[in-house]
């Protein structure tokens, strides 16, 4: 029998810009288009966890504890940041949503006690989202 999945949604605003410091502005703009300039998004973060249902609570995860982990270790770093420059993990990586979901997974997975991460989803725009299953 499989375990239930539960998803909690969070929101944050952040900016980033794509490019390489050792490339010319022209090459960065040709490769990344307008995203070679600093721009921002109102991100929607979906965290899906799974695990055994606690028979005392009926829950897979304590959503208060999950929210505390996400607030303390993810949102406090990303919200209202330019994360390609403000978050050290991105020093040698492009600030793509593909890398962002990996950063979030690696950051919160070590703090979960009874539940396991199933999926991280970042909705960057109404037409673009990225999923990561670890």
Describe the overall structure.
The structure is a single chain. The protein is an alpha+beta fold and 134 residues long. It has a single domain, classed as 6-pyruvoyl tetrahydropterin synthase/QueD (Tetrahydropterin Synthase, Chain A). Helices cover 31% and strands 31% of the residues. It contains 4 helices and 5 strands. It has helices at residues 25-32, 63-78, 83-86, 97-109, and strands spanning 5-16, 39-50, 81-82, 116-125, 128-132. A 5-stranded mixed β-sheet has the order 3-1-2-4-5. The longest helix has 16 residues, at 63-78. The chain is elongated and about 60 Å long. 19% of the residues are buried. The model has no long low-confidence stretch (mean pLDDT 96).
Query: Runs with pLDDT <50, length 5+?
Result: none
Strand content: 25-35%
Distance between the termini: 22 Å
Kindly report the CATH topology: Tetrahydropterin Synthase, Chain A
Level of helix content? 25-40%
What characteristic shape results from the CA principal axes? elongated
| The number of domains | 1
Alpha-carbon Rg, integer: 17 Å
CATH superfamily: 6-pyruvoyl tetrahydropterin synthase/QueD
The biggest sheet, with number of strands, parallel, antiparallel or mixed sense and barrel status, is: 5 strands, mixed
Quaternary structure of the protein? single chain
Which sequence of SSEs, written as H and E, runs from N to C?
EHEHEHHEE
Number of helices: 4
Mean pLDDT: 96
The neighbouring-strand order within the major sheet is 3-1-2-4-5
The CATH top-level class label = Alpha Beta
What's the architecture, going by CATH?
Answer: 2-Layer Sandwich
